[in-house]
Amino acid sequence: MEVKFSGGGERKHCLRRWPKMEVKLKNREIDQGLGLVKPFLAKGLPVKLSFAIAKTIRRLKDIVEVLIEERKKLVDQHQLTDIEGNAVADEAGNIQFASPSKFADDFNELMKQENEVDVHQIDYEKLTKMKDKDGRLIQPSPEELEGLLLLQMITEPEPEEKEEEEE
């Protein structure tokens, strides 16, 4: 994982509480992470936290739009068509592919592509001590936490160095 600090102290309007970091995210991580994080925003989060997460999500949505377009191109390229050029589907309405393995290979290649994205990062310890608008501790579900981790929005605490005991 490559991480570069990109915020600097020059912009006073920047969210100082949560640094913005440039990270590399694969399309698969973005796709999965966004789906897991969206419910977290509906929890009545503090304004600064909600704003930081929403800004990151907006940046990632631009990538997802391109991803969806490319996914559609792959489906069009690999789908079976009838004599009239219409897509062939099974009884359940699922599109059939001329070569499912070739489609899967191309799709996996698309999902492996990396993007450099600025994300606001949140200290895990601070997150677990924050309260929502009703004064309750914010407790992300395991799925929401997984989404935040996939999107590299959580900074984990540095492991404390153990002092060696002298004998």
- What about the largest sheet? 3 strands, antiparallel
Straight-line distance between termini = 40 Å
Class inferred from helices and paired strands:
alpha+beta
> Looking across the biggest beta sheet, what order are the strands in?
1-2-3
DSSP, total strands = 5
Number of domains: 1
So how many helices? 5
Uncertain spans: 1-16
How much beta, percentage-wise? 5-15%
Q: Which of globular, elongated, flat, extended, rod-shaped describes the shape?
A: elongated
Which percent range fits the helix content?
40-55%
Rg over C-alpha atoms, rounded to the nearest angstrom: 21 Å
How would you state the average pLDDT, rounded?
84
Element-by-element helix/strand order: EEHHHEEHHE
Topology, please?
Blueprint: E1 3-5, E2 20-26, H1 27-41, H2 47-78, H3 100-112, E3 114-120, E4 122-123, H4 124-129, H5 142-150, E5 154-155
Parallel strand pairs: 4-5
Antiparallel strand pairs: 1-2, 2-3
Helix pairs in contact: 1-2, 1-5, 2-3
Give an overview in words.
By secondary structure, this protein is an alpha+beta fold. It has one domain (3-155). It is built from five helices and five strands; from the N terminus they run ββαααββααβ. The chain has a three-stranded antiparallel β-sheet. The model is unreliable at 1-16 (pLDDT under 50).
Brief rundown of the structure:
By secondary structure, this protein is an alpha+beta fold.
Distinctive features:
167 residues; two-stranded parallel sheet; 13% strand; 5 helices; alpha+beta; three-stranded antiparallel sheet
